[in-house]
Amino acid sequence: MQLLNRNELRERIVISGLKATQQRIVVYEALVQQHGHHPTAEEVYQLLKPANPSISLGTVYKTLDSFVETNLIRRVLSEESGKRYDANTMAHSHIYCSNTKEIIDYEDAELEQLLTDFFRKRNMENFEIKSFAVQLTGNKKEPGKQIRISQVPK
Amino acid sequence: MQLLNRNELRERIVISGLKATQQRIVVYEALVQQHGHHPTAEEVYQLLKPANPSISLGTVYKTLDSFVETNLIRRVLSEESGKRYDANTMAHSHIYCSNTKEIIDYEDAELEQLLTDFFRKRNMENFEIKSFAVQLTGNKKEPGKQIRISQVPK
DNA sequence: TCTCAAATAAGAATTTTTCTTATCTGGATA
DNA sequence: TATCCAGATAAGAAAAATTCTTATTTGAGA
User: Fold this and answer.
1) Domain range holding A65?
2) Which of A25, A139, B10, B90 is at 20 to 30 A from A124, Cα to Cα?
């Protein structure tokens, strides 16, 4: 990602649907500059504090949340913080519903096979792959009902 | 997953390399019974407390961590807990190194295309897919050096 | 059964995140 | 440009999540 100047940053924030306040601009700027680094809210706060001594950690949290809501930025999938556990160690994927916050198992042998084959053909230098996972993010249309994913009969 | 009796649970714990204590057995049992539910440590604790009033939350945390370490269970990838943020909203995957805890961007147009095509052919009932992500988990062989993933010239 | 390294309970401490409230500000409007 | 106000922020309290400490207990090998 190319570096963006303040006006470009401002514009993106506005386009996403938020007021371009000073705090939001510097938070977004920090995140763009940290491209590839996936900082935490705390880390963003520490980055900003020297040049913005009056910014508060609460604002950083709130700002990042707003950005995620307007799809200006994303949360990175992580097992690091590791809140949720699963006894099923077989390869399987997960569906995440943004509305209900549910994480639903999604077993799709064809998908696993496709990816296994794909990664078998990739040459990994300095990395030993132990597992892979796919996560689908989206929304249930009817929260009460089940999700069903099937092959389209072609 | 089929239900397991206490002896089967005990055996799996031992095979994974841990002493089969009473607490570990009931924690593992709870997790197996919650198949598909991905409970948090707190939730496991609440499930166990009625029948095991003396178990402590700290033990549940520690036990789950041990299980993850021996690969008896997994942590579920999650953006819910959402510690880390990324300004790059283009479709891209992440590589997670268990050793260094790094999350490294992995852009692979071919992989994205493969999955886009795949999901286009799937019929989703009651789910509107907004995005998907792949995460590779594994280890850097040489922590200092970069990872490089390339196509095998066939 | 005895022994002891390892595991646990209890709760303190720390860290992370959210909430509350008084104050401030971006930008719409006059 | 000055005024206004809904929405944003700072500060810090509060809550929630996680880790740590220490005395006690326990599983399993001798």
Assistant:
1) 6-69
2) B90
- Is residue A55 domain-resident? yes
The number of folded domains in chain B is 2
Same domain, A64 and A105: no
Chain A 59-118 residues whose Cβ is under 7 Å from strand D: 59, 62-63, 66, 81-83
Nearest CB to A152: which of B80, B121, B126?
Answer: B121
Interface test with A, best of B45, B75, B77, B140 (most A CBs within 10 A): B77
Q: What is the CATH number of the domain that holds B17?
A: 1.10.10.10
- Contact call for residues A98 and B130 (beta carbons, < 8 A): yes
Successive 10-residue mean pLDDT values, chain B, 154 residues: 78 95 96 92 96 96 95 86 83 85 88 94 91 89 87 64
- Cα A126 to chain centroid, rounded: 25
Taking an 8 Å cut-off on Cβ atoms, the answer to whether B127 and A95 are in contact is yes
CA distance A113 to A89: 16
